[in-house]
Specification:
Number of helices: 8
CATH superfamily of the largest domain: Winged helix-like DNA-binding domain superfamily/Winged helix DNA-binding domain
Radius of gyration: 24 Å
CATH architecture of the largest domain: Orthogonal Bundle
CATH topology of the largest domain: Arc Repressor Mutant, subunit A
Number of strands: 2
Strand order of the largest sheet: 1-2
Number of domains: 2
Shape: elongated
CATH class of the largest domain: Mainly Alpha
């Protein structure tokens, strides 16, 4: 018999730290309670949740030459923190723009700095309306300042509820569930403009 024969079985039975109780709701709520909360994955934001990296890079490079890190910082600043593209999204776009002949790189202070070529300047001028202002689009989305504040408030609410479910008495747990149910109903009343 091998040593790991005891570890065989269904994956959910092998997970370290898995409890078999009625308080496992299938997701964790953040620091001290697990690895995140509903709708949020660990790691960097996935594609589609920020803005148009290509458009942002072209518009910013039309203003000034910049290296990738400067572009990341400027996008984050202009979107008021709602969108901070990762290096893994900026650098492939810069490479693609270079391949298309719209930008060229020059070594400045030890960094590869991108500059629009004449074709790049022409492209930006001809497509300026189409390029829009991607950082403004990102800051207006659900991930804008209001969305982030609401997300933090909701996360704190869920952490507190989870703590009651974990440590509270049966009576405290019932009260906490009633609060959650009341909050859900109150949200729908807001949508219905019902002040009752």
């Amino acid at each position: 018999m091998r040593n790991n024969d005891m570890n065989r079985g269904r994956p959910e039975e092998r997970r370290r730290g898995r409890r078999d109780d009625t308080r496992d709701f299938g997701w964790d709520v953040g620091p001290g309670c697990g690895h995140g909360y509903p709708g949020r994955r660990r790691g960097r934001r996935r594609a589609g949740r920020g803005g148009d990296v290509r458009a942002a890079a072209l518009l910013l490079l039309a203003e000034n030459p910049a290296h990738g890190y400067q572009l990341i910082q400027e996008i984050a600043e202009r979107s008021e923190g709602a969108w901070t593209p990762s290096p893994g999204s900026i650098y492939p776009v810069l490479q693609q723009l270079e391949d298309e002949g719209l930008i060229e790189f020059e070594r400045v202070n030890g960094r590869n700095t991108a500059t629009l070529t004449d074709d790049g300047n022409t492209y930006v001028e001809e497509h300026r309306e189409e390029l829009g202002s991607p950082w403004e689009d990102a800051s207006r989305g659900a991930e804008g300042a209001a969305g982030r504040e609401m997300g933090q408030a909701l996360k704190g609410f869920v952490i507190a509820w989870r703590q009651v479910m974990h440590s509270g008495t049966a009576d405290q747990q019932a009260k906490a569930n009633a609060v959650v149910d009341d909050a859900r109903k109150a949200m729908y009343r807001i949508l219905a403009d019902d002040e009752s």
